[in-house]
Request: fold
Amino acid sequence: MSDLFLVGNGAGFSGDRVDAPIPVVRALVQRGLPAAMFFECLAERTIALAQIEKRRDPDAGYEPMLERLLEPILADCARAGIPILGNFGAANPMAAARCVARLARRLGIPELRIGVVTGDDVSGTVDLSTLAVHEADAGLDMSAWTLVSANAYIGAAPLAGALARGAQVVVAGRTSDPSLAIAPLMHHFGWAEDDWQALALGAACGHLLECGSQVTGGVFWDPGFKDIPDPANIGFPYAEIGRDGSLVVTKPEDTGGLVDLRSVKEQLLYELHDPAAYLTPDVVMDITGVTLEQQGRDRVALRGVKGHARPERLKVTACYEGSWLGEGEVSVAGPNALARARATADVLLQRVKQRGLGRRARADLIGISAVHDSDAGALWRSYDGPEPPEIRIRLAVESATRDDADQASREALAMLCCGTAGTSGARWRVTPRILTRSFLVPREMVPTEVTVREARLWN
Amino acid sequence: MELIEVPLHAVAHSRAGDKGNRANLSLMPYDPELWPALAEQVTEARVLALFAHRGATRCTRYDLPLIHAFNFIIDDALEGGVNGSLNLDGHGKSLSFRLLSMTVKVPADKLPRT
Reply:
């Protein structure tokens, strides 16, 4: 058994670059060491949208890019003995497994062993009203919400169990993101489920890699300040993990992006709250003693991570259909654009209010202040800087019904004739709003099941 | 040494993340020797004030001196978070650059680019 294991990442979210896994798999194959690939495709709300898809079509509800992501790498991984793990099963892991099986048969590898981990979906088995609410969500008003999905964040053990049964692809729904990296390490090194120090190393590996390019230059590059090579082809990361507890983050040589102390620090602290207690289902990670060292180009070593006993309870995120979002936009440009934009925003808000179309509404002046502003428009209302050449005015309305949201969004359209001089470029749309709330559930209420079959037997 | 007032962006970098209605903003000076100066000037109160217009209720700063970093947690800064917000940026991922617009005073020789 090798003392060094490689873990590569092929996606950091549903919607990531579909050609990203190719250079990572190539690098893992060239290194010739035992290795695994993982794909993180499931943000908080993604599973609710998938659940809605599944209701519409019982064979849908998994990662829509699954086939596109796996097709270029599946045969190479199978040949090299590199298992692939992913939460790309979303709301329908069984259908995702059938998709992988069809792909494998088409690629001429019908003997590919595909494992599925289920049990994360607790919508039919756990009464949410009996659970404690997660602290970050206290105080949300849930009256009039309709439950769409409820999934527990399951840990690495069942995924490692699938690997132990020979699975070459492991399809899961909701898992904690780092668990996708911890599982192959548990399996390879034989880590025990209470080896907190080892599991913390795996959690650090997973946390650094789970957002794909975010550790290799993505959402990092800032021209003139933090430049990266070839941002159109950022290499996705892989890590080298040693039996001795070493961890090095790196990336394929023939790719853009970079791995340095700056990029690793940004990702280490990403979505982390108390650095002494990063909670995963497998372990509580403590990075307060962590040190980082650049070891040559695009190689950063992390030392000093500590592990504490895992939480007693698992996190469950429930998604609800609560309301509708209506959005509409128009543009103004040239002399007096700022005054015309402010007047447009005020009139749009007035129209929504006098027609009673929304529970909440806001207007943005894109180009003056939008993403940093408040619902009340505190920043654009007090803006006294120079007049910009163009401004886009955006209206956003939360409505109880689809029709009200549609009517609200069309108030922007109507400004093409009723608006200020030179109003142009209307766009309007309506989307269902998915609301989420998180709970804590005792582990024993979330039993998991592992199914492993060859591709030729998945129908 | 002469002190010069600059936006944090001139001497530090940051990334924003979210969990529910909480934002997390990391902050790292490019030059580790600036870490104490930032520790003194980029206080919880000043960071909270940056998000007062959004109704933020609390800011907690965690110090990571071994990697010359800070982690700020800002409660109720996201007007409902990604699921409840009407903001184009419901995650608040652009908020790192609001932090980087805060000004600090640093020794002139610590400016990487002038």
